[in-house]
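Researcher: Hi, I'm a grad student and pretty new to this. My advisor asked me to get structures for two proteins we've been looking at. I'm not sure of the right format, so I'll just paste the first sequence and hope you can take it from there.
Model: That works fine. Here's the first sequence with its structure tokens right after it:
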Amino acid sequence: MLETYFAAPKTLGCLRAGPSGPYLDGFAALLERDGYRAATAVRYLRAAAHLGHFLQDRGGTLANFDLSTFFRHLRTCRCSRSKGGRRNHHTSFGAKRYRDYLVQIGVCRCSVMPEIRRADQPLVVDFRRWLQKHRGAAEPTVRQYSRGATELLLALGDDPMHWNATGVRAYFLERAARCGVGTAEKLVTSLRAFLRYLSVHGRCRADLDRAVPAFACWRLADLPKYLTTEQVDRLIAACDGGSPERRRDRAIIMLLARLGLRAGDVARLRIADIEWESGTLRVSGKGRYQVRLPLPQDVGDAIIDYVERRPQGCDSDHLFVRNIAPFRSFAHGDGVSSVVKRAMKRAGVVTPAKGAHVLRHTAATEMLRHGVPLDRIALVLRHRGVDTTAYYAKADVNALKQIAQPWPEALR
């Protein structure tokens, strides 16, 4: 398989003679199957050979190695065999991809990070299962809550029956002093959820979750951040073009701006979720909450344009995939937000808030301006209560002016 990328017999002999030689043909086949360009595959194969020689020179083996040591070596690498760039980022990416391949075929053991080992404590494992089974929590939420539970166990001890309100409160205040506002808010949520779980199962004192102080953050005190109609048009126009990447970006942005989907909703969309005959879109949101939304004509057309130019050889059933090899689906909503950020940069749209969620706010405010009642907006946005949707009522400044009362001093 190496002959696909290398023609010189001497080069082929050197590659196959090295420590990585027995596995390079299989690695080359994997790169070709995943759609890597020839130039990228050549760099990755050279990086794999470089890694093998590096381990051999230091007495290591491919069965168990630490990539961080190899990355430190690259900073000052002077190896005569490291062709293709010593400090080139392709070498790092190629080494990572090669390590994943070795793990896949059983040659290398998957390295376990210390934080993952700590998260394997029985209480945390049971908590994770409970979140997934009874709360329908998504994997990012499970990871966040598990991280908070693990840190609490490390700080207060492995037996929650010995915990008290003073210790829990002191831990939170000390931890919150070392992080930002957003992290502190998430910490409150994760700690209370973990303590409620322990309390319900009789593993700690009752109502211990109340020892976690409330974090003052009045999110309804300001106006929602959204884009104007002109900015949305510029954002969509910035995705014009016939390339698969631009067609994908256009379809993603129109879904976000027209239907108010979350970034995670878009990342999880599958081709089978589009019901073309009825013109609806099946969306699975938080807590396995599933709804059907009407699919506007322009959004459907944008999706069809992308599907027709979707990367060939992609076996994922997800609607949107990455535009570079390997052509996999987005792991989570961060990839979708990155698409929006890049489009904003191309369009020259400057806003205080960047990412996919600003388009969700935009969709809500647009529906409000067109006279859609709050309860209907709540259905589209899949809010559990209309009070959350009422946040967008403040965006209709003209309507608010009609009911605003003058200050008493102005009546004198």
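Researcher: Oh nice, that was easy. Here's the second one.
Model: And its structure:
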Amino acid sequence: MKKILIVDDEEKLRTLLTKIISLEGFEVFQAGDCKTALRKLEQNSIDVVLCDVKLPDGNGVEFSEQIKSKYPLLEIILLTAYGNIPDGVKAIKNGAFDYITKGDDNNKIIPLLYRAVEKVELARRIQHLEKQLDNKHSFDKIIGKSKNILSAIELAKKVAPTDTTVLLTGETGTGKEVFAQAIHRGSNRSSKNFVAINCSAFSRELLESEMFGHKAGAYTGAVVDKKGLFEEANNGTIFLDEVGEMSLELQAKLLRVIETGEFIKVGESKPTKVNVRIISATNRDLEKEIEKGTFRMDLFYRLAAFQIKLPALRERVIDIEALANHFVDLFCAKSSKKTKTLSKEFIEALKQSSWKGNIRELKNIIERSVILSETNELCIDCLPAELTPPAHAKHDKHLSAFDLASVEKLHIQKVMNYTNNNKTKTAELLGIALTTLYRKLEEYQIN
């Protein structure tokens, strides 16, 4: 039931209005002055205030500003015996929903109440959705307790409230966009747009148009003016994923935006000003790209004012189980399946994988497993063959967990995963010659 507060020093009018409004199904509260009204507001979740302009301890026009500053989602309808335009204008500026004259506009009160209540409901729904969005993209939603992921989160939290450009580095699938979203949500720009673009998904010409927009007729197919993503992100944040794929010509234009806050649309001659925070990401070693002449040094130092390296999944093995459980819950909910548990063998197999595709690959594997599973537990049979440990492989000649060769094979695989299949490093860690490693790889059919 929606709650209405009537603030008026005329008791008879308050009583009359209470009867009329109560018949519409509203819960009505009364106050004869500002002090009592504030107490009622503190004690009850009021939706709309009907307030007289002239009160014993204040003026309704000024009082409406005081109420709105403390309860921004609440709506106020001011009532006056002697309406005048200056007071009406000031009331609206102070946040009042409407300003009506007593007696002359009595028939307007109920329709106005319904409209004001609708506005309150919409504002509260928007607030709820924004809160959900903030929670979804907050740092608390980043899963992991490993030292290196916690270190990355701590760095991101420190830079989030600033306007500093951030460069996120790491392999594909390590969650760079998740971090970019969290940084945006932790910034002073969180109420503004977060716009993301994958720089590797477009040709140079199309990428320039996507980023900066174009005028009609700028090129074949440009039939109408188009606003670019930098303009869409004005006062917010733009996330440039795979920025290392950008052409040198476009890099120069991006550098201009960072240095001057201006860009020129394709086919336009005058600059457009923007105030945008830039977060970029790459899986390339940009310093090596600078040496090769494919990336500008000046742009690198502008983008990399604050660098955060995201660890590969194989570098945070202790987080795999938590991530897997998260994805299981996600895909079970999406497919309307009963929540499934993970068997010990299933979890162990996940921990033994090299995860070249990182979290993105793990997510895909879990989705596949949820689809294939016919029981309430994800078992090792749900995994693709390449993730099945040697002891479970159907055609593996070493089936015993106690067989020395099986133990040796499993250990070599673990070290290979750790070194990301670097055979020289693997041989060094194992303390054997490289030729011996190659012989054992062939013997155990390890790719």
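Researcher: Is there anything I should tell my advisor about the second?
Model: You could mention this: The longest strand covers residues 75-80.
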